[in-house]
Amino acid sequence: MNDLMDETTDDYGSNHYIHRSNWLRAAVLGANDGILSTASLAIGVAAASATREPVLLSATAGLVAGALSMAAGEYVSVSSQTDMEKSDINREREELRDMPELELQRLAEIYEERGLSKETAMKVAMELTEHDALAAHVRDELGINDVNRPNPLQAAWASGAAFSAGGILPVLVVLFMPLEHLEYYLYGFSIIFLMTLGLFAAKSGGSSKKKAILRITFWGTVTMGLTALVGYLFGVGVA
User: Fold this and answer.
1) Cα separation, 88 vs 191, whole angstroms
2) pTM recorded for the entire structure
3) CA–CA separation, 130 vs 133, rounded Å?
4) Which residues contact 165 (CB under 8 A, 6 or more apart)?
5) What are the φ/ψ torsions at residue 114 (nearest 5 degrees)?
6) Is residue 148 predicted with pLDDT exceeding 80?
7) pLDDT at 13 over 50
8) Distance CA 213, CA 182 (A)
């Protein structure tokens, strides 16, 4: 019976993707920004430059600065969220110590709002309180659980690494594609990179592949097109 339950759990568990949300969000966001920002910067400079060196320099500088900025920004952001969660947990611990009856009633009301009868809600609240009162309130009152609980270092590393992996692709295009019409090569290859990323994100997250490709292609085209326009408008033949 236990073997059957384990097998069933594995089968059903494989159909859910929410446990991937934290790392997938950071990885896709980082890679998307790496491709798009590096390519857009390179396209803008390429539209105003007659030589390869300024384009390569700007793309490389954008790659390094963007990766460090993404990692630092993600670390600070997630650390702030973690600090706030810790503060709420400490406050909840104090409330459980100072007014346990009120906290028990509050927990029962949460279960009642979710559809349980008043008697069942109170019984569930009492049993969970006896087992681990703080864990019950953290999960059901504050909405904090192991799935969505952030890790600052993990998020920072994932964002920085993903940005670098995405950003290196336009740099390679700058290095190896012909200088003439380089901005068009950058756009074409970047759209392919973005579409591949969209497919990966959709497959990993169990979402629509068509929507992911259309969304990422549209916004990628808009971003790179506007950057190229700026390069053409303000191009002064950078040498």
Assistant:
1) 43
2) 0.68
3) 6
4) 30, 31, 34
5) -85, 0
6) no
7) no
8) 24
User: How far from 224 is each of 43, 49, 127, 176, CA to CA, in Å?
Assistant: 7, 16, 57, 20
- Per residue in 19-36, pLDDT (tens digit) is 445 556 667 778 888 998
Of 170, 194, 136, residue with least CA distance to 58 = 170
Interior CA angle at 179 toward 185 and 30, to 5°? 45
Structure confidence by residue, pLDDT tens digits, 119-139: 888 888 888 888 888 888 877
Do residues 175 and 186 lie in contact, with contact meaning Cβ atoms separated by under 8 Å? no
Nearest to 196 by CA among 181, 204, 158: 204
